[in-house]
Amino acid sequence: MATIITMPRLSDTMTEGTVAAWLKKVGDKISEGDILAEIETDKATMEFESFNEGTLLYIGIPEGETAPVDSLLAIIGNEGEDVSALIAGGSAAPTATESATAPTETKTAEVTTQAPVATLPKGVIVVTMPRLSDTMTEGTVASWLKKVGDNIVEGDILAEIETDKATMEFESFNEGTLLYIGIQEGSTAPVDSLLAIIGPAGTDISGIAENYKVGGAAPTATTVKEEVKTTPSESAEPIETVSDGKRILASPLAKKIASDKGIQLTQVKGSGENGRIVKSDIENFTPTTTAVPTATKTPEAVKTETTKLFVPAGEVFTEEIKNSQMRKIIAKRLAESLFTAPHYNLVIEVTMDEAMQSRAVINSVPDTKVSFNDMVIKACALALKKHPKINSQWKEDAIIINHHVNVGVAVAVEDGLVVPVLRFTDAMSLSQIGASVRDLAGRAKNKKLLPTEMEGSTFTVSNLGMFGITEFNSIINQPNSAILSVGAIVEKPVVKNGQIVVGNTMMLSLACDHRTIDGATGAQFLQTLKQYIENPVTMLA
Fold it and tell me: Of 51 and 521, which is predicted with more confidence?
């Protein structure tokens, strides 16, 4: 008897899946444990095995297509079994009504529908642009670490892909030869676009790329092969290898170690593929090794690095900078927030004299380093527990009150802004908050944050005080209902006990979503927050 196989739920957050590749075709014999397909979830691409035996009679979701969980994925049964009724009842495929009235034509229609699967050469795998974060809709190939003709082993890093949140290494789950590259370095394409083709060396893949729905322009396989023939001689030269004239090829780990040691990557000669800088290059680097590469630079290159762009006086001069994925997403998210959530701002001035004294005492403890921002974050976490309506989210049919506190901390990076999250902040000590913020901020600037480390915030803190900004208003980081803007500590005359004395104050501005937070509620939160910051010892109560 035929068995319907539906799109499985392969993760707790999965609502739909994409068939990355079918490893079986209609007519194949299936044994229990056979891998039917590779399915791309919201988190990873995973192999889906069969729990049934029989013949694969029908494929309901072709390669590259996305469908909700529990959609008709396939039908397994006895060879020659009529499954037209199951198809009609379990799928909205165009052939369903025809198959109900003409069973003899059903098999032909099914085979025709699955022609792309059947004609895919044996062993050939189509690799698509992965979804590397929950908000990612398109990705940019920052650099290719493999070239056409290279042998690929499972686990090899194929490319570095820039998402809306970070630049991440993308590894291969397949083995074979890289036969085709569909998205060139620096190019952007939607999720599920043709990224590459892997298969046995010498396999004819003509027609595969052309028939695949690609989000961006892709060069032909012939062109790519011709380009590859010229690269070995070039890569053999003892020069720095870059992917676009500006970006240096280096592993994320190498970048982090270099940043920690204060080493400029332009001074390091890479020993990896195509001159890629790896961990050992940084660890073995000494300043004397920079003499030879520097000497090979042309005068024009040195001039470009050391001089600023000359702008003629009285002439119109513009420069166009391509928007990164991060910048596009920032623009989209903040525009959505500002124009969908009715913002209002509440401002309060906080006396910082006690906080400054408390911080000095705390930092006198060995191996302890706490900033004023850490104290503000801790105070926010405790105030949110007392005022949970601030710790909320708006939905069309309900307001979600979060009784857990996850504070997001806005961090400025080269391409824009990211918000790593401190989970269960109210349970963390000041020193734990300080260490976590330094770690997250450091990895954010090196683009080493994981997408999961930037998800799940219930409230956000943004601090520009270190830049001398005394007061500012932020845009709410949805789905949060509020964001706190922290200004600089200013020494100025204040009135205490009827006397004018020198004091230290700080301005706090709370941006609220009026759909979830009324003015009085926001004001009460700020009063509690002010009490905690002005009297840090109360945070121990």
Answer: 521
Q: Is 330 exposed, middle or buried (0-12, 13-18, 19+ CB in 10 A)?
A: middle
pLDDT tens digits for range 106-136? 333 333 333 344 467 788 888 888 877 666 7
133/204 Cα distance (integer angstroms):
34
Residue 114: CB partners within 8 Å, gap ≥ 6? 25, 26, 59, 62
- Mapping DSSP to helix (H, G, I), strand (E, B) and coil, where does residue 417 land? strand
Question: What number of helices (H) and strands (E) belong to the chain?
Answer: 15, 26
Q: Report the pLDDT value the prediction gives residue 421, as an integer from 0 to 100.
A: 94
Backbone angles phi, psi at 427, to 5 degrees: -90, 0
Kindly give, in sequence order, each residue whose CB lies less than 8 Å from that of residue 144, ignoring residues fewer than 6 positions away.
158, 159, 181, 185, 243
Q: Is 125 exposed, middle or buried (0-12, 13-18, 19+ CB in 10 A)?
A: buried
Query: For residues 309 and 386, what is the distance between their CA atoms, to the nearest angstrom?
Result: 54
Q: Which residue has the higher pLDDT, 541 or 421?
A: 421
Active site residues: 514, 518
- In terms of DSSP bridges, do strands 138-144 and 151-152 run parallel, antiparallel, or are they unpaired? unpaired
Residues 6+ apart with CB under 8 A from 188: 138, 139, 140, 216, 325
CA 241 to chain centre: 26
| pLDDT reading at 294 higher than 60 | no
Mean pLDDT of the chain: 80
Is the separation of the CB atoms in 202 and 169 below 8 Å? no
* Paired tokens of 239: 């020069």
Distance CA 108, CA 154 (A): 36
| C-alpha pair distances (Å), 367 with each of 176, 259, 519 | 50, 22, 42
Q: Directed axis angle between helix 430-445 and helix 252-261, to 10°?
A: 120
Q: Assess whether pLDDT exceeds 50 at residue 426.
A: yes
Please report where in the chains the tokens 């961006």 appear, as a residue. Answer: 216
**Separation between Cα atoms, residue 508 and residue 520, nearest integer Å:** 16
